[in-house]
Amino acid sequence: MSTTAELRTITHWIAGTPFAEASGRHGDVYNPATGQVAARVALAAPEDVDRAVAAARDAFPAWSRTSLGKRSEVFYAFRELLKRHADEFSSLISAEHGKPVSDAGGEIARGLEIVELACSLPLMLKGEFSEHVSRNIDVYSMHQPLGVCAGITPFNFPAMVPLWMFPIALACGNTFVLKPSERDPSASLLLARLLQEAGLPDGVFNVVHGDKVAVDALLDHRGIAAVSFVGSTPIAKYIYGRAAAAGKRVQALGGAKNHLVAMPDADLGAVADALTSAALGSTGQRCMSISVALAVGEMGDRLVPALRERMAKLKIGPASDPQAEVGPLVSKDAKARVESLIGRGVQEGAQLVLDGRGVSVPGHEQGFFVGPTLFDHVAAEMEIYRQEIFGPVLVVLRVGSLDEALDIMERNPYGNGCSIFTADGAAARHFERHASAGMVGVNVPIPVPVGSYSFGGWKDSLFGDQHIYGPEGFRFYTRSKVVTSRWHEVDRVGVNLRFPGGNS
Ligand code: NAD
Question: pTM surpassing 0.85?
Answer without folding.
Answer: yes
